[in-house]
Amino acid sequence: MLLREYLKEWTKEDLLNEARSYELKNCSRLKKDDLIDRIVEYLTTEEALRGRLSCLTKEQMVLFCKACTEPQKISAEEIMDGMQLYKYVLGSFEEVSDCFTVFEEIAQGFSGIDDEAFRAVQSKKGWLMKCISFFIDYYEIAPLEILDAGGNAGGHHRILHFPDGETGNAGPAERESALFREGLVCTSSSF
Fold it and tell me: Does residue 185 have a pLDDT over 50?
């Protein structure tokens, strides 16, 4: 499945919102096809792929890697992992079989960055995301230590609170995505 074809099903407003979430500039006047091209171009850059894929937990990464080669049937235990990959716009569920498949452009880009250095960073960030998700799920707070560029503790501590009134019915995937969008975790300079 092609990411470009998948995005053609979206409304232009949804595409503009997606472009804004990636901080893509000068998109509002683009035609829908040009906007799709811009989003695909961004999502398949090495920097974007490294940043987004390094945020995956170990379980999500295993599912992602398997789905790069062939569509995967999702077990009950893998539903949340599959939904997170879907929310990160890394792949989609096939309508007929409900199998999860990674978009071809994303799989091709991943093959170019899948090296030992990427796996080391991904392991650390994936573990961090799993810890943050645990705290959000059970305590509705996310303790985050602000890291300096070298990865050492910068001495500043923040606690993000997720009271029910602010997050509504947002689940862990939505809250993880919000943390990612805010740049609080999983940026290319976090580790």
Answer: no
Residue whose pair of structure tokens reads 């000068």 in the numeric block: 26
CA dist., res. 21 & res. 15, Å (int): 10
Question: Residue 79 is which amino acid?
Answer: I
The Cα 51–Cα 45 span in angstroms is 10
Q: Which two tokens stand for residue 10?
A: 């979206």
Contacts 24+ apart (CB under 8 A), 172-177: 172/80, 172/133, 172/136, 172/137, 173/80, 173/83, 173/84, 173/87, 174/87, 175/133, 175/136, 175/142, 176/55, 176/84, 176/129, 176/132, 176/133, 176/136, 177/87, 177/88
CA distance 98 to 32: 27
pTM: 0.71
Nearest to 176 by CA among 130, 138, 139, 118: 130
Q: How many CB atoms lie within 10 A of CB 3?
A: 22
For residues 58-93, one letter each, b for 16 or more C-beta atoms within 10 angstroms of the residue's C-beta and e for the rest, the string is eebbebbbebbeebbebeeebebbbbbbeebbbbbb
Alpha-carbon dihedral angle through residues 26, 32, 38, 42, given to the nearest 10 degrees: 110
Question: What pLDDT shows up at residue 163?
Answer: 46
Q: What would the pLDDT profile of 53-82 be if each residue is shown by its tens digit?
A: 998 999 999 999 999 999 999 888 888 889
